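Narrative of activities, Objective 1.

The group set out to show that a structural description can be obtained from nothing but a protein's sequence at a throughput compatible with the screening campaign. Below is one input-output pair from the validation batch, recorded exactly as produced.
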Amino acid sequence: MLDNLSDRLQHIFGGLRSKGKLTEDDINAAMREIRMALLEADVNYKVVKDFTKRTKERCLTADVLESLTPAQNVVKVVLDELTHLLGDADSKLVLSSRMPNVIMLVGLQGAGKTTAAAKLAYLLKSKNHSPLLVACDVYRPAAADQLETLGNEIGVRVYRSDSKDPVAIAKAGVQDAIDHLRDVVIVDTAGRLHVDDTMMDEAANIKAAVKPDQVLMVVDAMTGQDVVNVAAAFAEKVDFDGVIMSKMDGDARGGGALSIREVTGKPIKFISSGEKPDSLEEFHPDRMAKRILGMGDVVSLIETASKLQEEKLEQEQTERMLKAQLNLNDFLEMNKRVHKIGGVQKLVSALPGGDKALAQGQVDTSALDRMEVIIHSMTAEERVHPEVLNGSRRARIARGAGVTVTDVNQLIKKFNETKKMLKQVMPALGGGKGGGKKRGKQRKRRRGLPGMQGMNMDDMKKLQQMLDDQK
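Output recorded for this entry:
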């Protein structure tokens, strides 16, 4: 989503960079193109008008036009204004001190409320909360069944009732959370195909009955700028606190994501980019703005990778890695970790210019999967001792994996190059020879991805800034 907008903006900035000095006419022409790009992305026209006006005024100052790098300053201005459009600061979900906290989800039917409720429960559970899901949609067939199925998948209890009164179900669900010592209640309410008084009154009655700490509106990012009108109606009747933007991985134009904060004044708190329970993530306006401008999002990538630090590497595997004595089983483990981060596509898209490279087909996103198939076609001995792979063995492996012998040879070549690289890198990290017993003990429980240890948020931001400067 927003890929077309990103491509258009990068093309506009590329034209500006080709000019040594910018004139007022150059700025005016660029602003017209930006205006058209935003409108084509289905951004609300009032938002586009205000955005281009503010951006143009800042770009026409002497600080920009008379600088040594005017094009880069224009990009910086657009980045600042785009970040302001999405929200100047992160708006995290803040839970109160009362027990239990109540979070109420509202929105139109089909926006993804039920799925978002389960994803939010999964996220809170990962942060050591004990959530309870409450099924209050008594109109949509099998809505409670869907929520219960999702709850079972993530290990979260679901409260449901045969009652046809959503208000009574919500109140009973909160009491159930108190009885079973659940600290967060997530209330999944019913939606309609369009805004109507019945839906609004029901949402208002549930809100009055359970007094939620947070009311979150779930909106479908594929709806376009019409989502702004829906959000404005909910803001007037229910007064929600923030937005969960679902289906951000869709192929629609996505202008609603850029419009909703400016029009309603309500922040985007979460975005969802997939069907898996862990696909809900906190929304960061500055990172989204950088992604749109093709600057990547290394900070989010590192944060995702850092979550894997809770998974301990086996001591034997750790020692082999430190001594650069990998085998092909370790290659399989690395592939698993890349998949847990989100796969090659997410890895590449987080890098500056990554989205463009993916769109142009410059990245083979299935290479690691083919590698895994080839390794699984080997015997246990061949995985541990790949040096025994002669010509006949490689031909047998190729037949078993459905690939060519050349593919097998390339895998072995990459494996040997990786081992060679580790021999150069690991001594600098304290591994290999001369590490000593003390350092060996310190690394027995080395966690996460190699090279991630000791990196804090300041380091992450410096890395992102360095990549932005190179851009």
